[in-house]
Amino acid sequence: MSKNIEEPEIYESESQHHLWSVQLKATPGRIALLDLLRHEKKPVSVVALVKCLKKSGAKLTSPSIYRALESLVEAGLVDRVDTSSEHAVYEIHVGRAHHHHITCGACGDIEDVRKCLPKNIESTILADSAKFDRISRHSLEFFGTCKKCART
Length: 152
Known about the structure:
- By secondary structure, the chain is of the alpha+beta class.
- The chain has helices at residues 14-21, 28-38, 46-56, 62-74, 121-128, 147-151; strands at 44-45, 78-81, 89-92, 100-104, 110-113, 141-144.
- The strands form two sheets. Strands 1-3-2 form a three-stranded antiparallel beta sheet.
- A hairpin with a 5-residue loop joins strand 4 (100-104) and strand 5.
């Protein structure tokens, strides 16, 4: 992450503000990605992001999108969600409540799971760990079959 970026006094967009808050340069590509992800209801694949960005007129190549997404994940603005498929999906992290996902193994549909394991699960995990002192975050994904696929 760049550390010597001069922060503007007035932000043009919420996405620009988030980028500056983690000291990332607010490039048009990063702003476009954050804006797009902020309006999505569920995690989005890079293939879908490329299509949406092309429709919006953004001039980003797939490798540029991957690099931008990785910098956004590293900065904590975006999450990479494991759906156990060959392609990663991404969703906005900033401004969203902590949650997990359940993914249909048949059709790939994803649903947010708002409930989380009991708070003491992390202390239980740490008490059993020989190598770790703290947990800074966790990810828990569920896999199953959606009702629509179960009927077919």
